[in-house]
Design brief:
Largest sheet: none
Oligomer: single chain
Strand content: under 5%
Order of helices and strands: HHHHHHHHHHHHHHHHHHHHHH
Helix content: 55-70%
Distance between the termini: 65 Å
Length: 358
């Protein structure tokens, strides 16, 4: 093997050992197979110390017998256990079986941080054929191990690891309803936010208190706010859904209407009253009116609001007219709306273009 290729492998191994990218190990495996000649079979000695680079080459080389023999040496180099996880999906059955036996033997003694790192590698290699067994083994260890082994992974930089850790934490009941609500409100991963919002409400029981509802209602993600709005009915606080009738998110507006209707309040008169006060009107109120209004009754209100001084209100009114199909139903509607193609706000122009499209 040329020395330049050997140095390259050593550099890639150093990167994999030092970085938090779990996929680096699978890429190292692929790189070694690409540069190592198929007729180069080097079995690492068993009676002398082996360098990490030499062992990595043996674990990822083209010859199955070399890979299988190298697996017996990983116990002395635990830093290379991620390559054992990769070998658990090996195309050669003897190598796979040996790798899985090594992994089963090593898992009980792993510190939580190392268990999390191996699980991340298994997740990154999960697309490989036959890679599911290693992932199942490591996931089971997380489910049955110390709680700190799971909670310590909630902020993992690896997205798949972070999502798995939250799922296991929810399954094991490791997080309080209040903390779940805060994660749902402040997180940046929509999958985790949805999971934690649902789990917070489920864990809170039939009457969620303000420690759960308040974070959900102020969340950035519309689906999380919608979960909080929907829960207002179970909490006996349906009147607090009224401000969310004009939320920027359609799913939140729909949830607010559902809560009010289930408690005997028709949201349509509320929308009409809000839209009648042009100065204090929330910008998305016209769209909310269109979502539950009537074209014959409410189209004139929306046409008037297309001249509102605030661009967001104008854009919302145009979108509402489109929703009510009021542009085509009005003989002069297209001409009236075409004037907004020269509006100073790009938001309004986009809404007008959408409404005028065939």
């Amino acid at each position: 093997m040329p020395s330049t290729d050997l140095d390259d492998v050593a550099d890639r191994l150093a990167v994999a050992l030092s970085c938090s990218d779990a996929g680096a190990w699978a890429r190292l495996d692929q790189h070694i197979r690409a540069v190592l000649p198929w007729d180069e079979h080097v079995v690492p000695p068993t009676d002398t110390p082996v360098t990490a680079t030499a062992l990595a080459l043996a674990l990822c080389g083209p010859d199955g017998r070399t890979r299988e023999a190298a697996l017996s040496l990983v116990g002395a180099s635990p830093a290379l256990l991620p390559l054992v996880v990769v070998r658990c999906a090996d195309w050669a059955a003897p190598v796979r079986n040996r790798a899985r036996a090594v992994l089963r033997a090593e898992v009980p003694g792993l510190a939580p941080v190392h268990l999390g790192r191996l699980t991340a590698v298994a997740l990154a290699a999960g697309d490989r054929l036959r890679g599911g067994e290693a992932l199942e083994l490591l996931t089971t260890a997380l489910r049955e191990g110390p709680a700190v082994g799971v909670t310590g992974l909630l902020d993992s930089e690896d997205r798949r690891m972070r999502r798995l850790a939250h799922r296991i934490a929810v399954e094991r009941g490791l997080l309080s309803p209040a903390r779940l609500a805060v994660i749902a409100s402040t997180g940046h991963d929509v999958v985790v936010q949805d999971l934690c919002a649902d789990a917070a409400l489920a864990a809170a029981g039939g009457e969620p208190d303000d420690s759960v509802l308040a974070p959900l209602l102020r969340a950035r993600l519309g689906r999380v706010r919608a979960a909080g709005v929907t829960a207002l009915r179970a909490a006996g606080r349906p009147g607090e859904a009224v401000p969310y009738l004009c939320d920027r998110s359609a799913v939140v507006r729909g949830s607010a209407r559902w809560v009010l209707r289930r408690t005997g309040t028709d949201p349509l008169p509320l929308y009409r009253a809000v839209c009648a006060d042009a100065d204090a009107m929330p910008p998305d109120a016209p769209l909310g009116l269109a979502e539950c209004g009537d074209r014959a009754t409410d189209a004139d209100t929306l046409w008037a609001l297309t001249e509102h001084p605030r661009p967001r209100v104008r854009a919302s009114a145009v979108a509402g007219l489109r929703l009510l199909d009021a542009v085509r139903s009005d003989g002069a509607g297209s001409e009236r709306l075409a004037r907004l193609l020269d509006d100073t706000s790009p938001r309004v122009v986009r809404a007008a273009e959408s409404a005028l499209a065939p």
